[in-house]
Design a protein that fits this description.
The chain is mainly alpha-helical. It is 56% helix and 6% strand.
Length: 105
Amino acid sequence: MRLPWLDDQVLDPFDLGEDWFEILLPSLQLVLTDKIPVQQRQKAEFTLERLRLRDDERVLRQRQQWYQLYLDGDLTLQGLEKKAPLIARAIKKQQQASHWRVNIF
């Protein structure tokens, strides 16, 4: 059942920009980034809340399963990029930050 009034409040997936959302490790929460245009920010926040994408227990369990497959070596980073691209991006970001810290010290 479609709720037309909701269409104006939730972001259209086809309108999403690159890097508008990211996954935080190790919590696996989905958060907004600074790349969301100011005029879309409220809609993006509402979308996370309404669709329970930020930290709903069921959503987090699914993310945890993908992440654990990667950690256990049962899924490569390349495979994770195909199945859970935001988690893969978070891992790459974490790896880059670790590499940067190691090279500085």
